[in-house]
Amino acid sequence: MSREHKKNKRFTLAGVELEARSSGAMWWPERQVLVVSDLHLGKSERIARLGGAMLPPYEIKDTLARLDAEVAALDPRAVVCLGDSFDDRAVAEGLAEDAVLWLSRLMAGRRWIWIEGNHDPGPVDLGGTHLGELSEPPLIFRHIAKPGTSGEVSGHYHPKAVLHARGRQVSRPCFLYDSDRVILPAFGTYTGGLRSTNPALSGLMRPEALAILTGPVPAVIPMPGRCP
Predict the structure, then answer these.
(1) Containing domain of residue 85, as a range?
(2) How many CB atoms lie within 10 A of CB 141?
């Protein structure tokens, strides 16, 4: 087994083989589609603008660098950003020129879909296609999961889970998946997380749901808070 394969976990949704990558991105090998969620570009700027804490202003570069690494590794035909790509509309409209050029380079020569999120509704003048949701049967891509749907790929909740190992607890962002849906972790650098035990998540997922924890050594565990 290759080192790259060990860093990522394959799973199946609606008969489609998908790959949860250690970075928090998802890969659809058959269609060569890269999926990321909740980049929240410009979060430090928005917090400062609203009078909050002054965070180091490097998150845009760090998030784009990690996205660039995924694009370089996979050379996708299409990239789907599952909403909340920008922390608010003002950030998107005032993005620095170097970030605009970086995004333009990443988008060049491939289909790029911006799904609208609750932080960044409406069109953004950065190229690509802007949609409320994307249907690519048998999968459907949207920002927030809808109960009663199947083959759904979403984000929004920034799920994380706790792994108990060698007498200590490790909290990591995670993918949550069952036979109906997968919820991606947030890809952005300055993004918190919602414990998978939260009712907002446990109420969406089936009892047999699993969590795939991101990081250098991904782990697959029963979704904390769910009992098969």
Answers:
(1) 3-222
(2) 24
